[in-house]
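Progress narrative, Year 2. Work on Protein SlyX homolog from Aeromonas diversa CDC 2478-85 advanced from sequence curation to structure prediction during this period.
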Amino acid sequence: MEKQQLLERIETLETRLAYAEYTVEQLNEEVTLQGRELDKMRQLVHLLADKFKAMQPTQIASMAEETPPPHY
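Result:
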């Protein structure tokens, strides 16, 4: 293999490596963003669950518990 071909192959490999590094950086940023969003969603779910648990039971009976009106 002559020197020029070897240099071209090295240049091609360096270009591919640079592109791969860029892609990895972009993916890492996206994963980091998604992790932050997931943390926020978890907090919201916990907040909603706590609010739901803290709700006072209603004094109104459900439709299944209601007695039918006298004309039935």
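The chain has a mean pLDDT of 90. The chain is about 70% helix and 0% strand.
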